[in-house]
C-alpha cells in the first residue's frame, strides 16, 4: 500500500515539475530529437498502413493498431505504473484528444488508400526563427501535395481533415502535459481509439481476414504507433509547441521516402526540392535552439 501511495506521489510530483519547469535550450534539443525519431516511426507506420489498407477494410487495420497499442501499454507499463496508468485530472480533454487522434488516423489511412488506389491558444512566444522555419516547411510541402495537379480530390480532402484533427491533437498534447502523466495520456488515447474502431468492426468484417504475415504487420503497426506517440508526447514536455511544429513536417518527408523505397513511388525533382526545404527548416530550428544553449 505504501509503495502504491509513493508511486502516486512520484507521479504527481513529475506532473507538477513538468508543468512548472522552464523549457531550457538543452531540453529543447532533446525534444527536437524525440520528434525526429517519432516522425520517422510515424513514416514507417504510414508505409505499413498503406500496404494493409489495400487489402483490408480501414477500420479493421485501425482496430488492430489500437488494440495492440492498448495491450502493450497494459502489459508492459501496467505493472510498473499501476493505477497511475489511467488516472486523469482532465478526463474530458483526454477523451477529446483521443477522438482527435482516432479521426486523424481514420482520415490518414483512408487518404493513403484513396491516393494509392487512384494512382494560439497556448500563449507561447514564437520567435522569428520559428515563424520562418514553419513557413518554409509549409511552403515546402505544397509541391509535394501539389494542389490542382491531378491528385484525387477525395484523397486531398482527407489529408486536409487529417491535418486539422492532428493539429488539435498536438495542441491538446501540449496543454495536457501540464496536468497529466505521459503514460495516462497514451493509455486514454489508446483506449478511446480501441473503443471507436472495435465498435466499427461489425460493419467491416465482410472481407478477407489477414494471414500470419499481415497479422504480424498489424502488430508491428501498433508497436510503431505506441513508441512514436510515446516519444512525441514526451517531447512536448521538453520544448515549446512553436519550436516543435516545423520538425513535424519531417513526417511527410519520411513517409514519402519510405513510400518510394517500398512502393516505387519516387518523388519528382520538385517534390525532392520541397522535402529538402523542410529538412533545412528543421535543421535551422535545431541550430537555433543549440545556439541559445548555456555555455
In short:
By secondary structure, this protein is mostly helical. The chain is 78% helix and 0% strand.
Structure description:
By secondary structure, the protein is an all-alpha fold. Helices cover 78% and strands 0% of the residues. It contains eleven helices and no strands. α2 runs parallel beside α9, α2 runs parallel beside α10 and α7 packs antiparallel against α8. The N terminus is likely disordered.
Give the helix proportion (percent range).
over 70%
Largest sheet: none
Q: SSE string, helix = H, strand = E?
A: HHHHHHHHHHH
Backbone CA Rg? 19 Å
| Count of DSSP H/I helices | 11
Global geometry:
globular
- What distance separates the N and C termini? 45 Å
Ranges where pLDDT stays below 50 over 5 or more residues in a row are 1-22, 128-135, 137-151
Number of strands: 0
Structural class: mainly alpha
Estimated share of beta-strand residues: under 5%
**Overall average residue pLDDT:** 74
Amino acid at each position: 500500500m505504501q509503495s502504491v501511495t509513493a508511486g502516486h506521489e512520484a507521479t504527481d510530483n513529475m506532473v507538477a515539475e513538468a508543468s512548472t519547469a522552464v523549457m531550457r535550450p538543452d531540453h529543447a534539443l532533446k525534444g527536437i530529437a524525440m520528434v525526429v525519431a517519432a516522425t520517422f516511426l510515424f513514416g514507417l507506420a504510414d508505409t505499413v498502413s498503406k500496404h494493409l489498407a489495400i487489402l483490408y477494410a480501414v477500420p479493421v487495420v485501425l482496430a488492430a493498431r489500437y488494440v495492440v497499442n492498448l495491450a502493450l501499454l497494459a502489459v508492459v507499463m501496467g505493472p510498473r505504473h499501476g493505477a497511475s496508468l489511467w488516472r486523469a485530472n482532465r478526463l474530458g480533454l483526454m477523451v477529446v484528444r483521443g477522438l482527435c487522434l482516432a479521426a486523424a488516423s481514420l482520415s490518414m489511412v483512408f487518404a493513403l488508400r484513396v491516393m494509392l488506389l487512384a494512382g494560439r491558444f497556448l500563449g507561447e512566444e514564437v520567435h522569428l526563427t520559428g515563424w520562418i522555419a514553419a513557413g518554409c516547411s509549409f511552403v515546402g510541402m505544397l509541391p509535394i501535395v501539389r494542389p490542382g495537379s491531378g491528385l484525387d480530390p477525395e484523397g486531398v480532402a482527407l489529408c486536409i481533415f487529417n491535418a486539422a484533427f492532428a493539429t488539435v491533437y498536438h495542441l491538446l498534447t501540449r496543454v495536457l502535459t501540464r496536468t497529466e502523466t505521459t503514460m495516462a495520456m497514451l493509455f486514454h488515447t489508446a483506449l478511446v481509439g480501441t473503443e471507436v474502431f472495435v465498435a466499427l468492426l461489425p460493419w467491416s468484417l465482410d472481407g478477407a481476414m489477414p494471414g500470419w504475415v499481415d497479422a504480424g504487420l498489424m502488430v508491428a503497426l501498433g508497436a510503431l504507433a505506441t513508441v512514436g506517440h510515446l516519444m512525441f508526447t514526451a517531447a512536448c514536455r521538453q520544448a515549446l509547441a512553436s519550436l516543435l511544429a516545423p520538425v513535424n513536417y519531417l513526417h511527410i518527408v519520411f513517409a514519402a521516402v519510405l513510400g518510394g523505397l517500398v512502393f516505387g513511388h519516387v518523388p519528382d525533382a520538385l517534390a525532392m526540392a520541397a522535402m529538402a526545404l523542410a529538412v533545412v527548416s528543421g535543421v535551422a530550428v535545431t541550430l537555433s535552439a543549440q545556439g541559445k544553449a548555456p555555455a
